[in-house]
């Protein structure tokens, strides 16, 4: 709560932007970007999502309205964007969701797949030093189809090496899903994933219904696995 209130105070300070020089404004915007990402790292997903919507609406102000600031109204360096404050906020949220960035202190790729950024690996008790990635993430968190996958999600295939069963499931963040399952079953391994809706997942469940062991786990043949690996 204290951390959230601190963030809110920082964003209320944006109202003083017209009293700042462009250099001061640029530095302040950089600090805001770091705070957004810090909040994303530490706050629970839903709480951060609500907070981010409000804060980004304040950050993504149309500075060109005063005639004193750059026409580019997106101050957190996610590329050129023009439009109303809500449009800029949405564009920023989408950019954060798709691109990802690197926590260089713990070697973690940060990304925002479902309304809140999550951390893979890393140590959450450390203050992250975040850097926006100029290119693709350092880890295979988001494949090139990320923009489409943000809406559809992924269908994945995992193997439990302990019993030889395969899991066909759906997730917006397959690698994160793999890590959560490995916490209970370390022998689980991701084999492949591809862009697909829950309807595609159900289609595959029906296709292999006779080989179902329980839930999303199946006793698949080598031929079945090879076919899924080609999707």
TrEMBL record:
Residues 160-231 form the Bacteriophage T5 Orf172 DNA-binding domain. It holds the Pfam family MUG113. It comes from the Bacteria. This is Bacteriophage T5 Orf172 DNA-binding domain-containing protein.
């Amino acid at each position: 709560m204290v951390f959230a209130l601190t963030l809110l105070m920082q964003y209320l300070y944006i109202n003083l932007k017209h009293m700042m020089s462009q250099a001061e404004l640029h530095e302040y915007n950089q600090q805001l970007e770091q705070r957004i990402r810090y909040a994303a790292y530490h706050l629970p997903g839903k709480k951060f999502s609500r907070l981010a919507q409000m804060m980004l609406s304040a950050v993504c102000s149309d500075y060109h309205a005063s005639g004193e600031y750059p026409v580019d109204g997106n101050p957190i360096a996610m590329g050129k964007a023009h439009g109303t404050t809500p449009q800029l906020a949405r564009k920023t949220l989408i950019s954060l969701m798709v691109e990802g960035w690197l926590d260089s202190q713990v070697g973690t790729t940060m990304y925002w797949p479902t309304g809140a950024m999550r951390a893979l690996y890393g140590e959450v008790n450390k203050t992250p030093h975040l850097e926006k990635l100029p290119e693709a993430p350092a880890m295979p968190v988001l494949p090139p189809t990320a923009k489409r996958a943000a809406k559809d999600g992924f269908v994945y295939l995992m193997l439990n090496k302990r019993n030889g069963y395969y899991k066909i499931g759906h997730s917006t963040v397959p690698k994160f899903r793999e890590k959560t399952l490995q916490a209970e079953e370390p022998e689980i391994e991701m084999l492949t994933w591809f862009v697909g809706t829950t309807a595609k997942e159900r289609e595959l469940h029906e296709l292999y219904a006779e080989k179902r062991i329980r839930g999303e786990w199946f006793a698949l043949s080598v031929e079945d696995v090879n076919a899924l690996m080609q999707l």
